[in-house]
From TrEMBL:
Keywords: Membrane, Signal, Transmembrane, Transmembrane helix. InterPro entries: DUF6049. Pfam families: DUF6049. It comes from Bifidobacterium bifidum ATCC 29521 = JCM 1255 = DSM 20456. Residues 1-21 form the signal peptide. Residues 149-166, 246-259 have a biased composition (Low complexity). This is Dyp-type peroxidase family protein. The keyword Hydrolase does not apply. Residues 149-174, 222-266 are annotated as: Disordered.
Length: 731
């Protein structure tokens, strides 16, 4: 009884069985203050019949359980945002706007350490709170979580403190707030209708998660199954007219070796489930525009594809920033691998013949735009950091830029909407944008505000929004549904955007083109390091073909497939968004190293020599489907026990051959012969093998008897002198 009275006097009761709650008041406050809120679900567009529904997740990242709490969702139905700054300040909690119209409340039980709970609040369409909303557009919405405390009549039998009696908000607990938006459409309202603003939503279809298939690479090195014969794929884009060059060994490096068979043979299978989920959205959302990496579509899907990007999403902006064409060619990626002609040749039959270059990690500088135009792209998409100028209202993101190769059209996305569609918050301080649902709510509110900025200019504006390459189909589906429900937006296609009046042309457009690629130092190092490793693998293949293989005519088709595989790995490694660049580069190195690794020396047993001369057999194995000719070198670490230096041997396909080295011994002892392989140019390759040689010299020929006779003669002369010498006087 005394303990109970003491706890009541302190205004707090410890729930039965909850030991973590027995802490000091300041510890409880800390646990409450670090409670995190996020929006799991919400109604992005409110109509006269939809009502408003929101699900809120409350997590407890602390070491102790929290007190029970109360969530309140309220908004201001009469407030109108007056500027972009105003709406952003609300999102980051930097402005105080009264929000007194309560949509609903929910009690929250005590949350255990490192756990979370969800609560759902529903406001029906005919509720007084929603009836108060008579103007369409975005409204400030506030989610508040505050700890509660028990009243004096609290029952001591409750385990979570939330049942059995009333609880009230704890005035000493600091509330946690989350700032978001409720956006009302014009449906069911008598407000004057304004023209909807055009918006183009683009979904890229890329496979950025592929890795090198080690088993397939190893099989390709040792087998030639005859597919992919002498004919080059039309995927290449042709010969020397597209910038192809010779790599110094008579081998074209324009990427024309790439074949569909090789694409699938050295890469892990596509994530077909994720791709199929996105492809299914095309039929569900008829106005969703798609731009596909042609290598990601293994076959004709039958779905509408509106445009194709450069194969593998090759990073043109990094290519221009590195500004070393030769390094890319030596790495196995010439312009023929990623130009517009290659993109169209590799595209499925159901796709539109519209090549559009996708932006890489860098910015579209003048040099990058000129490079894209030279490679046949009349249009590029700028998904980030193109026009940094600030304008009074949003505008169509179409720019016609003059380059040395002709005019090119830049389709630049609207920054805030584009960031949200890529899963990024507009600011790290925007507490309501930590979840997809919260970002979708902000997207809808922001687009409504843009239309309201200049409502009667909407018909002359067309905003571009691009989804991120790694965004899930579920997120894209939800956001597209929200856009389709937004009465102030009109979805358009890529052709409408291209045909729209350019916002800037000529010299005025040149003034806003970024002067620097802003390719980060980390990305620059990653690309240059990959280029060096890829060039080594390509050089290994060329060297093996010219200096080890013997029948160049018969093996030409096989070597082309090997090079095609290397080019495929290199092209994907130099993509604009590879998640597994190390795997792809290592796969290319494995391919180049495997060429020489397929010719090896079979380990030889130790040799014991019992005479001045002997023979040392060495067996060389060839695991490749074509014959090779190599030099075999032997060098010992002893001056008394030596072998012959070199010998040449031709090893048939998938076979082995034996060579012998002469051993000459001057004395008994031990030596190690280091045996290595050399190509026809005298350069070593592969792993060396060591053979132990032990000499036990025996007298087994005339030379030995002569030595013994001479030794006996010397002994007799010595004895004769010993008996006939004159002694000294003191002896």
């Amino acid at each position: 009884m005394l303990l109970t009275c003491a706890m009541l006097f302190a205004g707090r009761m410890v729930p039965a069985g909850t030991a973590h709650m027995a802490m000091a008041d300041d510890e409880t406050d800390t646990a409450t203050q670090t409670t995190a809120l996020s929006i799991t679900e919400s109604t992005p567009v409110v109509t006269d019949t939809s009502g408003y529904h929101i699900t809120i997740s409350i997590s407890n990242p602390t070491y102790a359980a929290t007190s029970p709490g109360l969530v309140t969702v309220a908004y201001n139905p009469s407030y109108t945002f007056v500027s972009r700054t105003d709406i952003q300040h609300w999102a980051t909690g930097d402005v105080s706007i009264p929000v007194r119209t309560v949509l609903g409340t929910a009690t929250v039980p005590s949350i255990a350490a490192s756990k979370k709970v969800s609560v759902k609040i529903d406001a029906v369409a005919d509720s007084d709170a929603l009836k108060a909303l008579q103007m369409w557009g975005p409204k400030p919405l506030l989610v508040t979580y505050q700890a509660t405390q028990a009243t004096d009549s609290q029952s001591t039998g409750s385990s979570d403190g939330s049942s059995g009696s009333d609880r009230t908000v704890d005035p000493n607990a600091k509330p946690i707030r989350l700032h978001s938006f409720l956006t009302r459409s014009s449906q069911g309202l008598r407000n004057a209708q304004t023209p909807p603003m055009a918006i183009t939503m683009v979904m890229p279809l890329m496979n950025t998660g592929q890795q090198a298939d080690k088993n397939a690479i190893d099989q390709l090195v040792v087998h030639d199954n005859g597919d992919g014969s002498d004919t080059k794929s039309t995927q290449s884009g042709g010969g020397g007219t597209d910038g192809s060059t010779d790599d110094g060994s008579g081998n074209n490096t324009d990427g024309s070796e790439n074949t569909a068979a090789t694409q699938s043979s050295v890469l892990t299978p596509h994530d077909n489930d994720a791709l199929a989920a996105k492809l299914s959205l095309i039929g569900k959302h008829s106005d969703l525009q798609t731009i596909a990496d042609p290598t990601a579509l293994a076959s004709d899907t039958g779905q509408r594809i509106d445009a194709v990007m450069q194969p593998a999403g090759f990073d043109i902006t990094a290519y221009a920033a590195i500004n070393n064409v030769r390094s890319y060619e030596q790495a196995g990626v010439g312009t023929g691998a990623w130009n517009a002609r290659s993109a169209l040749a590799a595209a499925p039959a159901s796709s539109n013949s519209l090549p559009i270059a996708w932006q890489g990690k860098g910015d579209w500088t003048r040099q990058a735009l000129s490079t894209a135009r030279k490679q046949g792209y009349q249009y590029v998409i700028a998904g980030h950091d193109f026009d940094s100028s600030t304008t009074a209202t949003v505008h169509t993101g179409t720019y016609t830029i003059p380059t040395s190769a002709g005019d090119i059209t830049v389709l630049s996305e609207q920054k805030e909407l584009g960031d949200l569609a890529k899963g990024k918050p507009t600011s790290s301080d925007a507490d309501g944008e930590t979840s997809n649902a919260g970002r979708i709510a902000r997207f809808v509110a922001q687009s409504a505000f843009y239309q309201m900025e200049q409502p009667y200019a909407a018909m002359n504006r067309n905003l571009l929004v691009c989804f991120g390459t790694n965004m899930s189909a579920a997120f894209i589906d939800t956001l597209m549904t929200a856009v389709e429900q937004s009465s102030w937006l009109q979805l358009t296609d890529l052709n409408d955007l291209i045909d729209a009046d350019a916002y800037r042309t000529g010299d005025k457009a040149l003034q806003i083109v970024p002067q620097d690629s802003h390719l980060s130092e980390r990305n620059t190092r990653s690309v240059t390091s990959a280029l060096e490793s890829l060039a080594e693998s390509r050089n290994d293949i060329n060297r093996f073909a010219t200096s080890v293989l013997t029948d160049h005519k018969a093996s030409a088709s096989w070597i082309r497939k090997i090079k095609a595989a290397q080019s495929t790995l290199a092209l994907h490694a130099l993509s604009s968004a590879p998640r597994n660049i190390d795997s792809l580069v290592d796969g290319a190195k494995r391919l180049g190293g495997g060429m020489f690794g397929g010719v090896s020396i079979t380990p030889t047993d130790s040799i014991t020599v019992v005479s001045e001369t002997a023979k040392m057999p060495v067996t060389v194995r060839n695991n490749h489907p074509y014959p090779v000719r190599v030099k075999v070198s032997s060098l010992t670490d002893s001056m008394e026990i030596v072998t012959s230096r070199f010998t040449e041997v031709t090893i048939p396909a998938n076979s082995e051959a034996q060579v012998t080295f002469a051993i000459r011994v001057a004395t008994s002892g031990h030596a190690t012969a280091h045996i290595t392989l050399l190509d026809r140019n005298g350069d070593t390759f592969g792993s060396a093998q060591n053979t132990d040689i032990t000499s036990v010299l025996r007298i087994s020929d005339m030379t030995g008897f002569i030595i013994i006779g001479f030794s006996l003669l010397l002994g007799l002369v010595g004895l004769w002198r010993q008996f006939h010498r004159k002694k000294d006087p003191d002896e």
